[in-house]
Design goal:
The termini are far apart. Among the domains are: 4-112, Nucleic acid-binding proteins (OB fold (Dihydrolipoamide Acetyltransferase, E2P), Beta Barrel), CATH 2.40.50; 137-262, Response regulator (Rossmann fold), CATH 3.40.50.2300; 397-438, no CATH class. Helix content is 50%, strand content 19%. Helix 5 (178-192) runs parallel beside helix 6 (216-224). The chain is rod-shaped. Helix 4 (148-160) links the parallel strand 6 and strand 7 (165-170). The chain is an alpha/beta fold and 448 residues long. Its EC number is 3.1.11.6. It comes from Gilliamella apis.
Length: 448
């Protein structure tokens, strides 16, 4: 035998423990408690037995404090446990995770099994949940006709929204036939299609009292319903299979009534807001219609024959005025041009030239006359001046003073005796006349 195949007791017990854990795992088990002990550590140790067998059990402190009761010897309990091996003594045992009294425990076990089954089938999937309608007018109630739940629902609905119409589908909510009756009422409501939403529920009670809402037949009827279903079973701490399958879960029947109804005051406020919106919309609509009417009226006025005639008349008057203005401007331009041409014609006309040159000749003639007159005036002035100067040196002026001027026959003034000879005829000019004489003697003046 090879040494590698030899195991220790510890190894063997570890292998067996692993095999038990992997092969069996967690189980639910019903049995009677015996040999119960509770040491100072807080752990519970006891034996769980039935008529023919027994098994040792341990429930540690971190698990047993949640059970809510202290087990007693001889008490029937339902436990959730893991199968394991106590390696120190090589004894297999159960490690208890949960413990309940056997009556409620069996129901809880059935609850967990059905819950797991339906969950795996997808009945709890949110994608299948229907939303509640926005405008609920009719509410169907599936519950006991004499229960407190119906009274609470009706009272709240009447207080919050008196306009809601209620249809009651009476049924048993407790007992062996209750689940089938509730499922039948759900089918009837779907066939009639007389309500917008269904409330399915009852008041509080024990697990046994609420068990009808944990039946598979009811769960499948809720899932198959075409009408949205609000589950309202028991109190807030109570959960049933119907709560998980329903489209909406309400904590209590009263809460379900509040979910499917709208508060009267809130509705009044909402109606007032809607009224304001409607008034605004109507004002806007009327304003748009009025604008369109005015637009059509304007188009009608603009397209009316009288309007077209008026428009054409205005255009005609405008055109005539523009034509008149243009003609005035044209005539002014032509008149101005005519004046220019007339002036140019006058300037190049022979008569104009004759007149021009005649005027120029007259001007020149006048200038010449003026020049001559100026010259004559200057000459007269010079003559007078020279005459005055000449008179001042003239022999006549000398004669005026008693002197005389004697000239020879050549009319030259005799200034010395050398100019004359005896016998020569000479003339002497006096103031009053001339004297002719003959030289008979010449006497020269001596220089001494």
């Amino acid at each position: 035998m090879q040494s590698s195949s030899i195991l220790s007791v510890k190894d063997l017990n570890q292998m067996v423990k692993d095999l038990l854990s992997d092969a069996i795992g967690q189980i639910w088990l019903v049995g009677e408690i015996s040999n119960f002990s509770r040491p100072s550590s807080g752990h519970w140790y006891f034996t769980l037995k039935d008529e023919v067998a027994q098994v040792r059990c341990a429930m540690f402190r971190n698990s047993n404090f949640r059970t809510g009761f202290t087990p007693q010897n001889g008490q029937q309990v339902l436990v959730n446990a893991s199968v394991t091996l106590y390696e120190a003594r090589g004894e297999y045992q159960l490690v208890i995770n949960k413990m309940q009294p056997a009556g409620a425990g069996l129901l809880q076990q059935k609850f967990e099994q059905l819950k797991q089954k339906l969950s795996e089938e997808g009945l709890f999937d949110p994608i299948y949940k229907q939303t509640l309608p926005d405008n609920i007018r009719t509410v169907g109630i599936i519950t006991s006709a004499t229960g407190a739940a119906l009274h609470d629902i009706c009272q709240i609905l009447n207080r919050r929204d008196p306009s809601l119409h209620l249809i009651i589908y009476p049924t048993q909510v407790q007992g062996n036939e209750a689940a089938a009756q509730i499922a039948r009422m759900i089918e009837i409501a779907n066939v009639r299609q007389e309500c917008d939403v269904l409330i399915v529920g009852r008041g509080g009670g024990s697990l046994e009292d609420l068990w009808a809402f944990n039946e598979e037949v009811l769960a499948r009827a809720i899932f198959a319903s075409g009408l949205p279903i609000v589950s309202a079973v028991g109190h807030e701490i109570d959960f049933t299979i119907a709560d998980f399958v329903a489209d909406v879960r309400a904590a209590t029947p009263s809460a379900a009534a509040e979910l499917v109804s709208r508060d009267k005051l809130e509705q009044i406020k909402r109606l007032q807001v809607q009224e304001q919106y409607l008034c605004m919309a109507m004002d806007y609509y009327l304003m748009r219609r009025r604008e369109r009417l005015n637009k059509w009226r304007h188009q009608l006025q603009t397209q009316h024959p009288q309007a077209k005639l008026s428009k054409q008349l205005n255009r005609l008057l405008t055109g005539r005025h523009a034509l008149f203005e243009n003609m005035q401007q044209y005539l002014l331009r032509q008149s101005y041009r005519h004046n220019l041409l007339d002036k140019r014609l006058v300037r190049v006309s022979p008569q104009h030239k004759i007149l021009y040159y005649g005027q120029s000749l007259e001007q020149k003639q006048q200038q010449i006359i003026n020049l001559i007159q100026n010259k004559l005036t200057d000459a007269k002035h010079q003559f007078v001046l020279q005459t005055s100067q000449l008179n001042s040196v003239s022999p006549l002026a000398t004669l005026e003073r008693g002197y005389s001027v004697t000239t020879n026959q050549q009319h030259k003034v005799i200034r010395s005796v050398e100019q004359v000879v005896i016998g020569e005829i000479i003339e002497t000019q006096l103031k009053s006349g001339k004297v002719t004489s003959q030289i008979i003697e010449i006497n020269k003046k001596s220089n001494s």
